[in-house]
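The records we work with from here on pair a chain with its fold. A complete example follows; check for yourself that the lines match position by position.
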Amino acid sequence: MCGSLILWKTRKQPTVLLSTAEEEYKGLCDPTSELMWLQQWCQECGILLVDKLIPIYEDNQSCINTAKGHCNLNNKRMKHINIKLHFIEEAISLNFDGLVYTLTSDMFADFLTKYVGKATLACALGSLRFWRLGERGDVENKDLD
């Protein structure tokens, strides 16, 4: 809200998946349900959301196409996706279309889940405004004043 992060979660997936598109699609379950809850909570509290769409940033176009219903879920690559995951497609088709394609280089949270180079790490940490990389590659506390 107001350009700030309002929900954040990371955890290891408990299952083995067959493709990155499927992995990203499964990863959309939590933020989709959390945002549906948040929108309902704001409505119940009388908080008017100026932007009805709260974006979820995604860097996998196959995942976005699947979620928006542009992909045949009965094809050989997608037919094994668990039925319960299809609530994402249903939520998006009903009233939730905040799925936004974002370049991988702009996904600042990637350093939390995979190896990234020093320049990418420095950029991501700089965007958080709390940390910086020292000359030897170590992380130092940044003065917040």
In short: The mean pLDDT is 71. DSSP finds five helices and four strands in the chain. The first strand starts at residue 56 and ends at 58.
